[in-house]
Amino acid sequence: MLAGPMKKIAFLPALAIVAVIFPARLAAQLVHEHPTPPQASAKQDAQNSSALPEPSGKKRLSQEIQLTGEHTWMDSGIDVQAGEHVLLAATGKLRYADAKEDNGPDGLGRGFKDLLRVLPFNEAGRGALIGRIGDQDIAQTFLIGARRDVLAPVSGRLSVGINQTSDDTGDGNYAVRIEIYTPQDGSSRVAVKQVTSLPGIDPQLFAKIPRRIGDKDGNPGDMVNFLILGSETAMQRAFTTAGWVKVDADVKDTVLHGVLGSLSKESYLTMPMSQLYLFGRPQDYGWAHAEPISVVRSRNHLRIWKAPFQVKGETLWVGAATHDIGFELDQRNDGITHKIDPDIDLEREYLEKTLSSTGLVAEVSHILPDNPMKEAKTATGGAFHSNGQVLVLKLADSGKDGSISTSASDKN
Fold first, then answer.
1. Which has the closest alpha carbon to 361: 204, 206, 241?
2. Which end of the chain has fewer CB atoms at under 10 Å, N or C?
3. How far is Cα of residue 86 from the mean position of the Cα atoms in its chain?
4. DSSP label at residue 202
């Protein structure tokens, strides 16, 4: 939910205004959209080809595929196991209609036009070779470039692609050499374990956790639909590895961080998230996950609080996750707010898939509390429904916590 008038969410049109007001500062953040000279690129390819040592472990597969410029993604046909090393090396050239020179697998330098492009991997330039392992809906995209050694966090199908949009493809092709190496000790990483119960997650615990979060006036809002067991460091690592980003505290921070700070998808995801309350305080963290640009009307987001008690000596995080799907009238003040998908269980499942895909979750359980909540309305008047289950994720790395402040704004 995004409380407040429409002007608080009119972020993207402000990009052009900020670009005019702060041209010098923006120019310092960008490179010109000119590719590396051909002779320098050839030298770089030669260096990249020997930059990474051969991974330890036994080579179990070696294959080469051709990726033509009209492809955005291509299924390699290779199933990778968690813990295996995937060594990828690429050669070849692409040419885009508006580019003055060819580019190689490292892609073009990012330019001002990239403020408006929505690329599969916004942290890299157009035309770069990219990859992913697993379900296309949740798998984290990574940069391959001319050469990359990737340690697979989960098992799944390997896909390779070109960092471009379907209506702006390049001419040419890349030859991609793929080698798979088994772990040195011959063992693979253990996949997340689905369990029916977890120690300490019982009716006595749920009696201490409010079923819903609320606004500053005490109006009940979103349902508490997930718990995480693990240290603050482990929790942050799981979210960031899964591609979730922290949400800015206010509009001012959004403009400064999003426009002047970077061109990554974080620029668009960190739109302000209203403060809601649990355990008598605002959220400790806000996290968002979505594609840029479309985040204005659609994003996966959640709020999370550190519980004032532990479970079997472990830190407990309590959260509410929802999916913004559009706008609606805030029935409290006639303002405009984000409308959530009424089937909030879909967002709970999305959270489970994205965090489990990192290889950082050890155990997953779905618990049905006593008197489960199945239908209600948010603080702004929107209806939602659920089967009442609460997702519980136990992180693989659950070290000791440092202290955290009780204000979400201190973290953004």
1. 241
2. C
3. 22
4. S
Residue 145 CA to residue 172 CA, distance in Å, equals 16
Residue 393: in which H helix or E strand, if any? strand 390-395
d(CA 19, CA 114): 13
Cβ atoms 138, 350 nearer than 8 A: yes
Task: Residue 343: name the closest of 380, 313, 304, 375 by CA.
Answer: 375
Specify whether the CB–CB gap between 397 and 409 falls below 8 A.
Answer: no
Strand partners, 244: none
Residue 280, number of CB atoms within 10 A of its CB = 9
Domain 53-181, CATH among 3.40.50.300, 3.30.70.1140, 3.30.300.30, 2.60.120.430: 2.60.120.430
**Paired residues of 383 in beta bridges:** 377
Of 392, 15, 328, residue with least CA distance to 198: 392
In this structure, the number of other CB atoms found within 10 A of the CB of residue 38 comes to 13
Q: Give the separation between CA 14 and CA 3, rounded to whole angstroms.
A: 19
Per-residue model confidence as pLDDT tens digits over 226-249: 999 999 999 999 998 888 888 855
- The helix/strand/coil state of 43 is helix
- Residue ranges of alpha helices (H) inside 78-223 are 203-206
Sequence spans of domains, the chain: 6-17+192-411, 53-181
* Among 258, 286, 263, CA closest to 126: 263
Model confidence pLDDT, tens digit, residues 87-134? 999 999 999 999 999 999 999 987 777 666 778 887 789 999 999 999
Count Cβ atoms within 10 A of the Cβ of residue 190 and give its class: 0-12 exposed, 13-18 middle, 19 or more buried: exposed
